[in-house]
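Open question from group meeting: does this chain pack into something compact, or does most of it stay loose? Before anyone orders reagents, we agreed to write out a predicted structure and look at it together. Recording both the input and the output here so the notebook holds the full record.
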Amino acid sequence: MSDIVKVSDAVALGIHAAVMLAAWNDKPYSCKQLAEALSVSENHLSKVMQRLSRAGIVVSRRGPRGGFVLARPASEITFLHVFEAIEGALTVPGCLIRQPKCNGSGCVMGDLLHEIHRQTRTYFTGTTLARLAGVIRKKQ
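Structure tokens returned:
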């Protein structure tokens, strides 16, 4: 059951980095600065930031005062945007044993998997970087 809602390290890094950018109010931050703030590998974070950039979530500014900033307001970027930029589409999970053994009339788990997927999608689409940035600001 632990794989029902799986958030990879890359997604966790992407969410945290994007939320930090949202909380830091449009000031560009380098990948090195973000990696140090998150205590993570700069190389790994760099790959995640490239995905976020390709998806139009962040933009990279060059130069001595360059770095990453959000491409649009934090209130317009959801958890789902970041998740799907890194992992691809959030899909409905299949059979937990990876080999359906039912007769096709229904799942022995009932509607559990679909309900978890529905709730996860609802949370991901309803949670913006602006809302998550508020959590960081409260801790400072």
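Observations to bring back to the group:
The chain has a mean pLDDT of 86.
The first strand starts at residue 58 and ends at 61.
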